[in-house]
Amino acid sequence: MKKIISFVLAAAMSLSTLPALADWNNDEDIMSLLSELNIMVGDDDGNLRLDDNVSRAEFAKIAVASSSYKDTVATGLKVSPFKDVTYTHWSAPYIKAAVSAGIAEGYVDSTFRPDNTVSYEEALTMVLKVLGYTTQDFGDSWPYGQMGLANSLEITKNVNAEQGEALTRRQVARLIYNTLDTKIKDNQSKLITSVFDSKVIEGVTIIASHNEDSSLGTDKIYTTAGTFEFDGNFNSDYVGRKGDIVVKNDEDFVSFTPRDQQVEEYTVSNVIGSDIILDGDMYNINSNTTTYYKSQALTYENAAMQAEKGDTFKLFKNSNGSVDYAMLVAKDSETGTDSFDKYVIYSLLSDAVICYKNGSFEQIDITDGTTCYKDKNKSTYGAVKNEMAMGDILYVKMDGSNVDYVSYEKGNMEGPVKVTNSNWIANFDTNGSTTVMRSGNKVDASEIQLNDIIYYCKDLNMVLAYTDKVTGVYEKASPTKDSPTSVTISGKEYSVESVDAFNALSSSGTFKYGDTVTLLLGRNGEVAGVVGGSESTSSHATVGFVTETGKKDFTNPDNTVYSSYYAKVVTPDGTVNEYATSSDCSSLKCAVVNVSFTNGKASLSRAKGYDNVSGKFNSEKNKFGDYTLADDVKILDTAGTASDDLAMYTRIYPQRLDGVTIKSSSVLYYSKNRAGEIDELILKDITGDAYKYGVITAADSTTHTYTIDIDGTQNTYATAFSTNVKGPHRFSMNQTGIESMRQLSSYPSNITSLTRTEAKINNQTYLLSDKVIVYHKTDVNKYLKITLDDAINGNYKLTAYYDKAQTLGGRIRIIIAQ
Fold first, then answer.
1. Contact by Cβ (8 Å): 254, 36
2. Residue 88: exposure state from Cβ atoms within 10 A (0-12, 13-18, ≥19)
3. How far is the C-alpha of 525 from the C-alpha of 468, rounded, in Å?
4. DSSP symbol at 426
5. Angle made by CA atoms 433, 434, 438, in degrees to the nearest 5
6. DSSP 8-class letter at 534
7. How far apart are CA 134 and CA 116, in angstroms?
8. What's the pLDDT score for residue 348?
9. Per-residue H/E/C for 339-408
10. Is the separation of the CB atoms in 454 and 529 below 8 Å?
11. Which long-range contacts (CB under 8 A, 24 or more apart) does 271-277 make?
């Protein structure tokens, strides 16, 4: 049945070059906007009480809530701001904030008179001060200067009040609404944009909500200006309407003002060719008329191909009665029968997604070929999954027990924020049930440390803290230092993620080329924060193993070149940091050092020895001798002791050292956390995992040349030493060749049983290296690399070669199959 609905709303007019808030006459619409911005709300029963008067205390609260000082209200005051406003009075924090900000003031008798009704001129004075105007702008003629300025700024428009009049909530709402639409003094930004990160987009058509297009989230609307998220209820009558929309942070729907339109609604009774029969009649509609269907903008002709009997068809006409555009609503859409289940992505597996919903985790099995919608474009899950990250949203449509198709959108992830104090949690709207994760481990909020990078996922109600850091020499900014979107630190390029990092690394920031900086990396490995070398990024001083020293040239932005000494130091977590040093540190290569800073340059000094820590590792009990290990203990095993040695290292974990007895002479450094647990440990050549392992296939002791095979790759090197021994060896490899080599030992008997982790020899079990290499020896000097599975399943005689006893950290490195 045809319905004709006439909407009589004032068209939005703007005298400014900036988009203006609509000239609303509807009090409910104004209050809806002010409520969304948390400026004015109804009572507990939802009543707006628009005809009630407003007190001075109430208006002080409203004025502060609409100003840039809205976040300065401090609860729990212990001092009364005025003698008639005790610190226990509900309004005390707001009056204190208003007076401190210069928005409001008391009387000469040291009273504020909070319960007096606010007069028209008092309210005008306060909103003008919210906009940055002062008594110097008003002049000495109270209150005519204030009223004249307010009139010229059109703040008084439609308020309908006179001097001395006590204002109602209706008049105050209009006054605040006008103030939001006014530019701040000496600023091109309007108050609503500057304070609330909101903006007005004019001439927007709301195309669909979840009811019209089930691939949209239940809290999303799709418009001609993009997709926006709403919090709470959305007026479904807005769908199809054109008007002006207020959005916050470019993604959150705040309010909508429909324009003056006539809407005709019909039921599709049939479709004949490219014409839609509406309520039994055929209407003359241009075939190119824009017709919205779900979240698509089609022509009327193409929409007819989608139409079915029983669908709803709407014509939207402008003020002269001509058709502006149309909308087709599928009959199933209105009932939401094609519904999705909404999940929050927590982790991705190869063929499944770990998701969070209603307080619990679920695994959803999805094949790469599953249809996936992203930004309203049809694709496949396999093509889109690499873009997915923790906190993103996945809508899943099931067909029985199988996934029919999915829709994906980016999640509501707040951050990054660099932790600068213990009150970091105030940056987010968390609650008592918020989960805090630090480097993948669930922790108490008190365990978040200075310079951690944190995010808040609202959908997961989870704080995610990241601790990855890179220290090096600032070499280059791209495309320019004035506008760095990426930076090069010690030869490696990193993208810049946050405004904080952008400002610090730009020409106006504190860091110049050649400085030692520490990059604080966020969840995607991009730069979310920056600190100088002298700033602590952990709970204790920086200590590490020196792997390289030297001198290099740096180029300033003005293309002048200068030289500086540098040193590379690897910390116990395996991170290599490069520092600009104040002097030549070549004598400290292969040493464990303390790093300190003076005027942006690093100074290295040998760390003291540790002769009181030794014992056997027990990974199950998390113990090293008598010491307890922290759950996130960082262990570095090093090789090389003299400054002319090749410096090698590897990051290891407690399980790798299980059952190994370590002497105190092999502990180069350790540190403890606040709980007294060992949280960092540097060892001297315990595991042997830092070396390369392979076979010598040819040796010429006369020319000192050797052909070696490492992991299936053969190369010939000239060396300064000689040997005639071939077969399995351990190698120290530098950039040009072999630094040193040592023959591996073999067990006297063959392997009788082999798995992927261990070998049995003479009823004894020996562990394999996780990088064990298997060679099929086909001739005296011919070795062909094969897989471990080949050795397990083949009919071979197997000989195991190891570097040292298992109790000392050794492993089977090479298996020869014959």
1. yes
2. exposed
3. 8
4. G
5. 140
6. T
7. 24
8. 87
9. CCEEEEEEEECCCEEEEEECCEEEEEECCCCCEEEECCEEEEHHHHHHHCCCCCEEEEEEECCEEEEEEE
10. no
11. 271/304, 271/307, 271/308, 271/309, 273/304, 274/300, 274/301, 274/304, 274/305, 275/304, 276/300, 276/303, 276/304, 276/307, 276/313, 276/328
Residue type (1 letter), 87: Y
Q: Would you say 394 and 406 are in contact if contact means Cβ atoms under 8 Å apart?
A: yes
pLDDT tens sequence across 172-199: 999 999 999 899 998 888 898 888 888 8
**Sign (positive or negative) of CA dihedral 577, 582, 587, 593:** negative
Read off the tokens for 335.
């009932």
CB neighbours of residue 603 within 10 Å: 15
Q: Which SS3 state, helix, strand or coil, does residue 697 take?
A: strand
> What pTM value is reported for the model?
0.51
Can you point out the beta strands (E) in 582-626? 592-598, 601-606, 615-618, 623-624
SS3 (DSSP) at 30 = helix
The DSSP symbol for 735 reads S
Paired strand residues for 634:
680
C-alpha distance across the termini of the chain, in Å: 87
* 561-570 and 516-521 strand pairing: unpaired
* CA 228 distance to own-chain centroid: 19
Residue 26 to residues 10, 174, 246, 274, 470, Cα–Cα distance (Å):
10, 10, 16, 41, 56
Amino acid (1-letter code) at residue 352: A
Per DSSP bridges, beta strands 764-779 and 812-817 are parallel
- The predicted structure's pLDDT at residue 19: 53
CB 453 within 8 A of CB 418: yes
Q: What is the pLDDT of residues 526-556, one digit of tens each?
A: 999 998 865 544 445 689 999 999 988 876 6
Strands 402-409 and 758-761, how do they pair? Answer: unpaired
* Beta partners for residue 505, in sequence order: none
Residue pair 267/1 in contact by the 8 Å Cβ criterion: yes
| CA-only gyration radius of the chain, Å | 36
In which element (H, E) is residue 275 found? strand 275-278
Tell me which amino acid residue 572 is. P
CA atoms within 13 A on the CB side of 581: 23
Residue corresponding to tokens 């306060």: 126
What does the alpha-carbon distance between residue 777 and residue 817 come to, in Å, rounded to a whole number?
6
Q: At residue 721, what is the residue type?
A: F
DSSP per residue over 554-590, as a string? EE-TTS-EEEEEEEEEE-TTS-EEEEEESS--GGGTT
Indicate the SS3 state at residue 193: helix
- The answer to whether 312 touches 331, Cβ cutoff 8 Å, is yes
- Only one residue has tokens 């290099």, namely 552
Residue 429's SS3 state is coil
Neighbouring residues of 685: CB distance < 8 A, sequence distance ≥ 6 = 637, 638, 639, 666
Where the chain has pLDDT below 70, the residues are 1-26, 44-46, 332-340, 375-376, 533-541, 555-558, 600, 609-611
Instruction: Report the Cα 735 to chain-centroid distance in Å.
Output: 38
Give residues with Cβ within 8 angstroms of 786, minimum separation 6.
Answer: 774, 775, 776, 794, 817
Q: Which residues contact 244 (CB under 8 A, 6 or more apart)?
A: 12, 19, 21, 22, 200, 201, 202, 203, 204, 256, 257, 259
* Token duo for residue 347: 């982790």
